[in-house]
Amino acid sequence: MTSKKESIIQSIRSDIMGGLLKPGQRLPSIRKQSEKYDCSLNTIINVYQELETKNLIYSRPKSGYFVVAQEVLLPLIQMKRIDFASAAPDPSSISQSDFRQCMNKAMDLFEDSIFTYPDSQGLLSLRQEIVKLFQQQQVFASEQQIFVFSGAQQALHLLSGMPFPNGKTNILVEQPTYWGMLAALRAQKQTVIGIERTPDGIDWAALERHFQSNMIKFFYTIPRFHNPLGTSYTQEEKQRLAELAKTYDVYIVEDDYLADLETNSKADPIRAYHGASHVIYLRSFSKVMLPGLRLAAAAVPDSLIPLLHLHKQTADLSTSVLSQGVLEIYMKSGMYAHHAKQMKALYNHRIKTLGEISKRLLPRESLYSVQSSGGLFASIRLPGPNTEEMVKRLEIRGVDVVPSDQQFLSSFPKMNLLRLSIIRTDEQDMEEGIRIIAEELERAQPTSSSPKPFAWI
């Protein structure tokens, strides 16, 4: 637990760095501060002395303490960042020389294709490689069922707006879910229904009611390493989803964006459970390769091929030949498998470390979905309604986090969650970052003089 003195120091420091106390402004007297923080005069004297040594305040004889000038504060504001926010790979974790080599070879091998418009469904030779990759996840599809997209976001956008063979029009999404999917749905002006997903899973009775009665075109789900929760469905739950989809003629868009990070060899996708007729299996390559290549692939049911081919062609004619060529060479050379193995080991170690540190430092009530293995994300919940204030205080202290607000439908009740990503944090950053979060969570709790009660949600 943070000492009283340290808690007051952090409170005043945050007010200064956040601009609530302006440069040159006089601080409250020692007596007033002792009353505000319900502590002794000596504690406030020690607080002011330590803030003075940190060059945050200065004293004037017989006048009190004042906030230092802005030009002195600027170097303090430009501190090292602890990044719990990013979802893009750290550039240092990817060998750019390997990609240059693949790019140069792609220029040679696919030179003729660069001057034409290739198949909008994707290069046949690449689709054949993707068939092999998907088989490793127990997703068995033919090259005719494989589509290559300019990133998973394009796939989600096209699927959201196009008609489906079942003739239904509404879309069901987990809450919370990937913000990019919600953005695609808003852009397409689709009718969207939300269903709550918690660390314990989903309400199966509610899901079946939606499938049965609400004209659901498709259900968008992230069964593995959910964003932002980080949790995964069990094998039994995936099988149940596949069966319900067939029973009620509802398609499932299975966003398996982190399949490469799976540590459990028996964790098969929904598509593997006799779901080939109703499951669109979507796979991104952004977390293992460079996100700027903008590549994703999907295995789709036969019933969807003609419609999707038409909509893909009208969207972009074809995905970048060079990007496809780089991915094909990267896969055929064994570089993809090697790099994916390295990333899986790195991220699994980091998420395990995050779980251990969080359980040691954070209040039990805040550990909403902190995992010990697999994936990139975990979520912690905040006390009270002031998520924005918490994010700002953490930012002031050099810790970047993402609130989950954008991952809920505007009509759906929101939880006060912060998403933590381990993709750009090492062990030292995690320890320091979680310690700061713990201090701010403690600070958010009421003092004896607080006018409003506090309750964990």
From TrEMBL:
<keyword id="KW-0804">Transcription</keyword>
<dbReference type="InterPro" id="IPR015424">
    <property type="entry name" value="PyrdxlP-dep_Trfase"/>
</dbReference>
<keyword id="KW-0238">DNA-binding</keyword>
<keyword id="KW-0663">Pyridoxal phosphate</keyword>
<dbReference type="InterPro" id="IPR036390">
    <property type="entry name" value="WH_DNA-bd_sf"/>
</dbReference>
<feature type="domain" description="HTH gntR-type">
    <location>
        <begin position="2"/>
        <end position="70"/>
    </location>
</feature>
<dbReference type="InterPro" id="IPR051446">
    <property type="entry name" value="HTH_trans_reg/aminotransferase"/>
</dbReference>
<keyword id="KW-0808">Transferase</keyword>
<keyword id="KW-0032">Aminotransferase</keyword>
<keyword id="KW-0805">Transcription regulation</keyword>
<dbReference type="InterPro" id="IPR004839">
    <property type="entry name" value="Aminotransferase_I/II_large"/>
</dbReference>
<dbReference type="InterPro" id="IPR036388">
    <property type="entry name" value="WH-like_DNA-bd_sf"/>
</dbReference>
<dbReference type="InterPro" id="IPR015421">
    <property type="entry name" value="PyrdxlP-dep_Trfase_major"/>
</dbReference>
<dbReference type="Pfam" id="PF00155">
    <property type="entry name" value="Aminotran_1_2"/>
</dbReference>
<dbReference type="InterPro" id="IPR000524">
    <property type="entry name" value="Tscrpt_reg_HTH_GntR"/>
</dbReference>
<dbReference type="Pfam" id="PF00392">
    <property type="entry name" value="GntR"/>
</dbReference>
<dbReference type="InterPro" id="IPR015422">
    <property type="entry name" value="PyrdxlP-dep_Trfase_small"/>
</dbReference>
<dbReference type="GO" id="GO:0008483">
    <property type="term" value="F:transaminase activity"/>
</dbReference>
<protein>
    <submittedName>
        <fullName>PLP-dependent aminotransferase family protein</fullName>
    </submittedName>
</protein>
<comment type="similarity">
    <text>In the C-terminal section; belongs to the class-I pyridoxal-phosphate-dependent aminotransferase family.</text>
</comment>
